[in-house]
Structures are given as structure tokens and as C-alpha cells.
Automatic annotation (TrEMBL):
<dbReference type="InterPro" id="IPR036895">
    <property type="entry name" value="Uracil-DNA_glycosylase-like_sf"/>
</dbReference>
<dbReference type="InterPro" id="IPR005122">
    <property type="entry name" value="Uracil-DNA_glycosylase-like"/>
</dbReference>
<dbReference type="Pfam" id="PF03167">
    <property type="entry name" value="UDG"/>
</dbReference>
<protein>
    <recommendedName>
        <fullName>Uracil-DNA glycosylase-like domain-containing protein</fullName>
    </recommendedName>
</protein>
<feature type="region of interest" description="Disordered">
    <location>
        <begin position="1"/>
        <end position="35"/>
    </location>
</feature>
<feature type="domain" description="Uracil-DNA glycosylase-like">
    <location>
        <begin position="65"/>
        <end position="188"/>
    </location>
</feature>
Length: 214
């Protein structure tokens, strides 16, 4: 990615718990050309769904990313940061930060998004699984997202809801490699040693599609 200001060194697990880091990240997002098309898409979704839509992290690759990682739906922490980010102050984000780092996948190669990209829970309520109608409505925004990513080389589908989009991905971008992994939420990761092992293996496979050293 290029054309924007130098990114401040505010990244790290749960670093967006700091309001100053959040403010710096938003200032960077507003000045980052590699995020501008995604910000317009997020604004369109907000208008059409009348729901909050957190934006992509400007420290990631934006439309220049080669790896799209789809989670399920924005969690409650996005209300404090308004970003979909591995730096959010949650256990899920911290796990994602760790797993992506272990896989050796550069941030500039990644875009983290959600299968249902808007916030579905009521203010103050705990997150919940997306309903069928919400998933159906969200499918319409997957082709426009893919159209913004000309160098996309692999998609990682994290969790059941995201994995349900595999047929839509095949129709929109035939032949694009798709890797399914478990969701990185602490509750699920801690259920069995097999869960983190499957995430590690899936991200290693995605790294190979990017031509990164194993």
C-alpha cells in the first residue's frame, strides 16, 4: 500500500484499548487511499441497512490486500473503536493477532472483514449469531467487496457463518482459493487443542497461496 502518511507505531494485541491509539488510527484511515473504496462501501452498507458498520484497519492492506479474512459479524468492541482490527481490545482479536503473526503473513497482505459487516446486537447487549435474514442480506455485499480487491489471492473463512459464503465466493470469483478455519474466539479456541491447531494449519495453507515461506 502507498500514498498515505507513515503509520504511527500503535499496533499490538489490544492496543486499541487506548483512546489515543483509536484517534490516531481514525486519522490515518481518513488519509489512507488504500482504504477509501472500502470506506465508501461501508458507508453504502450503513445507509442501506441503517446499522453501524466498522471500517477496515488502515494498518492492514485495504484494497491492495492479497488475503481476505472473513469473520462472522462485528463484536461489541467495535462500538468503542469502530474498526474491524486484530488490535481491538478483545480476546478474539488478540488470538487473531497471534495466529496471523505465527503464520508470517504481513499486515499489508491482509484485509479483515465480516460476513455480516454491520453490528447486529443492540447497544449494551452481548453479541449473538446472525439470523438467516441477516446473512441473506449480507450476501449482496460480497461481490462489491471482491470487486475492490484486484490482487486478491486467497480467502480465509473463519467460523460457520463465513464458511456459508463459500458458494458465493465460487460464483463471484471462480478458482479463487478458499481456506476454512475455526473462529478464533477464546471460548471456541479453548474447547480443544485441535481448534488452534486447525487455525494454524489453515493460515499456513493461506500463506502458501501467497507464496510466503513456510
Amino acid at each position: 500500500m502507498s500514498g498515505g502518511p507513515a503509520a504511527p507505531d500503535t499496533s499490538g494485541p489490544k492496543s486499541l484499548a487506548d483512546p489515543g491509539a483509536v484517534a490516531s488510527r481514525h486519522a490515518l484511515a481518513e488519509a489512507s487511499p488504500h482504504l477509501a473504496p472500502l470506506r465508501r462501501l461501508a458507508e453504502r452498507i450503513r445507509a442501506e441497512q441503517e446499522k453501524p458498520v466498522p471500517e477496515a484497519d488502515p494498518l492492514d492492506g485495504g484494497v491492495a490486500a492479497r488475503l481476505l479474512l472473513l469473520l462472522e459479524t462485528p463484536g461489541p468492541a467495535t462500538g468503542r473503536t469502530a474498526f474491524v482490527s486484530r488490535d481491538n481490545p478483545t480476546g478474539t482479536a488478540a488470538n487473531l493477532f497471534r495466529f496471523l503473526g505465527q503464520a508470517g503473513i504481513p499486515r499489508a497482505d491482509t484485509l479483515i472483514w465480516n460476513a455480516v459487516p454491520w453490528v447486529i446486537h443492540a447497544p449494551g447487549a452481548r453479541n449473538r449469531a446472525p439470523r438467516t435474514a441477516e446473512i441473506r442480506a449480507a450476501r449482496a455485499y460480497l461481490p462489491p467487496l471482491l470487486d475492490l480487491m484486484p490482487t486478491l489471492a486467497v480467502v480465509v473463512l473463519s467460523g460457520r457463518v463465513a464458511q456459508g459464503l463459500a458458494p458465493d465466493l465460487a460464483a463471484a470469483r471462480p478458482g479463487l482459493p478458499v481456506v476454512a478455519v475455526p473462529h478464533p474466539s477464546p471460548t471456541y479456541v479453548c474447547t480443544s487443542p485441535a481448534v488452534p491447531a486447525r487455525i494454524v494449519a489453515g493460515l499456513a495453507e493461506a500463506a502458501r497461496h501467497l507464496g510466503l515461506p513456510g
